[in-house]
Amino acid sequence: MEHLVFELERTPGPAPRRAAVVVGVVASGNLEVLVEAGPFPDRCRAEIQTSATGFGDIWGAVLADFAARHPVAGLSLAVNDGGATPAVVALRLGQAFEEYTGRNP
Amino acid sequence: MTGPRRAGPSYREASARRRLAAILDEGSFGELLGPTERVTSPHLAALDLPVAFDDGVVVGTGLLGGQPVLGASQEGRFLGGAVGEVHGAKLTGLLRRALAERPAAVLLLLDTGGVRLQEANAGIVAVSEVMRAVLAVRAAGIPVLALVGGAWGCFGGMGIVARCCDGVLMSEEARMGISGPDVIEATRGVEELDASDRAMVWRTWGGKHRVLLGEADRLLEDSLPAFREAARQLVGRARPLTLAALEAEQAWLARRLADLGGSADALDAWRSAGVDEPERLPLLEPPAWSAAVAGARRVRP
């Protein structure tokens, strides 16, 4: 297992404060993403627990791309990963953001 | 390929959270110990394995047909819905809550291979605690219903838990038992049982056989509305948990063993139960199937 923490700065926002959501399931090649309102209004904190070690750079790239596409400042992301591919991770992050912002406050 | 027409979204394909939300009255579900609480498995962490924020089970309160109920839903895709220490404690805690709150029913949406082997004795103890809690809730006159419609079915110790409940609702696609086909083949050999024979596996463990044997109450189509409606009808209907009721059940089991124990295949059992042309049963949709077996000798106590 590898524990990675990213602070995503230079991302638009702030995201609205909504009730937390979780999407996805921890399984082989899959992951769960928990989205909550975070402590820093100007950036997004992402904490990753992954069973695939040594892929920190790729996580950083996928998260930077996600933060460039979505106004995630002010959010906190927590991920439990069962070795999902970058494409699956990107889709889950997008799904998590959509579900979070689709919720009523 | 076109499947059978369903009255709504598939139960089997839905996530644990979606299932529970769809069974309960819309918007009524309130989760207890949700993912933000991060009550995760210490055993998986010690083994350096990934954890899930809810340890693979969603528990909470809600309404069904306007009546207060408690509900739990296992996520089969996380470690096969297997019961670890935290997962089991959430189930047991929910059942104990029922003793204090006295809801109209407790719904257990089971999708599980049984004990989580990674947690060894802690998982086994957890399942036995769930069994004890189910019986305590039933003894208090509160019905506990098992809904079995997921891809994993309901096996191992949780198969026993399902049969400790007041009622079991199953889809044809669901399976229920103690040891599953792969376990039997691995321990007794392929001559005993060929787990790759899917038609035989579903004849033996599937919903139709379980209902005909008297172990499940209703055969449902694989849809969320069908499970919701069937559960709604059973809320508030407790089976007596008395010595007389248990003795009657024991006598029924002995009679069933004498009648059907010699069957080499589910087809033989269906024939012995008085079903005409049992070969056609696996192909029938639930309504047609129910009509076809209506004349069969009920194997129910």
Please give a structural write-up.
- The complex is a heterodimer of chains A (105) and B (301).
- Chain A has 105 residues and is α+β, with helices and mostly antiparallel strands.
- In chain A, 30% of the residues lie in helices and 30% in strands.
- Chain A has helices at 56-69, 86-102, and strands at residues 2-8, 21-24, 31-37, 44-50, 75-81.
- Chain A has a five-stranded mixed beta sheet, with helices on one face.
- In chain A, a hairpin with a 6-residue loop joins strand 2 (21-24) and strand 3.
- In chain A, helix 1 runs parallel beside helix 2.
- The mean pLDDT of chain A is 93.
- In chain B, strands 1-2-3-4-5-6-7 form a seven-stranded mixed beta sheet, sandwiched between helices.
- In chain B, 41% of the residues lie in helices and 13% in strands.
- Chain B has helices at residues 16-23, 42-46, 85-101, 120-139, 157-163, 181-188, 198-205, 207-212, 224-234, 243-260, 266-272, 286-293; strands at 30-32, 57-64, 67-74, 105-110, 144-148, 167-171, 218-220.
- The model of chain B has no long low-confidence stretch (mean pLDDT 94).
- With 301 residues, chain B is α/β, with parallel strands linked by helices.
- Chain B has one domain (16-293): 2-enoyl-CoA Hydratase, Chain A, domain 1 (Alpha-Beta Complex).
- Chains A and B meet through strand 3 and strand 5 of A and loops of B.
